[in-house]
Amino acid sequence: MVDRRRRSVRTALVAEALRVALAGRVRTDPSGGLDIVDLGGGTGGFAVPLAADGHRVTVVDPSPDALASLERRARDEGVSELVRGIQGDAGELPGLAGKASADAVLCHGVLEVVDDPAQALLAMGSVLREGGVLSLLVAQRNAVVLARALAGHLSEARVALQDPDGRWGTNDPMPRRFDEAGITTQLAEAGFLVHTIHGVRTFADLVPAAFVDSEPGAAESLADLERAASEHPAFRAIATQLHILATR
Ligand SMILES: C[S@@+](CC[C@H](N)C(=O)[O-])C[C@H]1O[C@@H](n2cnc3c(N)ncnc32)[C@H](O)[C@@H]1O
């Protein structure tokens, strides 16, 4: 319960923005549910709730364990018929999901780990139908610079500030992080038009978890604060992640 509450603070904004974007698309699609591809969708944290909303979701992920959890989660929520898991990775996406087959593509926490982000963006663009939506969630460099400094790892903060991939050293488990300017340029090069950019987890990773878990109403207040700060440029610049909605 506590874990779920903390997780929901971290994902609520993304889920809300996505629902608004999909609602706009639903209005142009009389059949109701949309075809959604979740690249690296893992265990279905986004895919299963979207299926519960009536959308047909295909998760493409290289991890068999994640896909097994996805299947269980979909079964538990009674949406197995709307969720399809396919083992594969970003480079294989067009062949696996089908070109121009999706109204929306999700890529949440995945561009950081793929072999070739530019190729992955092109692949996602190719599976989208005209006017389809890309929901992209990427780790932001500035946040890790701040986090390493606040933890007293000042030289690692300095390395992350200047490293081309936004990593704080060779032991950094994250293969790459992004800057807003860099990711929007990459999206433009892949033919996407950016509509909105929100900062995600601006405070959620800074506020002590014990406080959020124990103080009545703290999780709701934190979610409110996150929402209010998410479009503010100064706070967006230090958010752990950037959530970008784009079309192609
Ligand atoms: C941080 S998890 C994010 C899971 C999910 N998108 C979410 O937001 O909860 C990263 C996911 O990317 C998947 N992944 C790793 N390499 C990948 C690749 N080359 N192509 C597609 N997915 C990949 C992993 O198996 C994992 O499920």
From TrEMBL:
Domain Methyltransferase type: 37-135
Keyword Transcription regulation: no
Source domain of life: Bacteria
GO biological process, one term: methylation
Name the UniProt record assigns to this protein: Methyltransferase family protein
Single GO MF annotation: S-adenosylmethionine-dependent methyltransferase activity
UniProt keywords, alphabetically: Methyltransferase, Transferase
InterPro entries: Methyltransf_11, SAM-dependent_MTases_sf
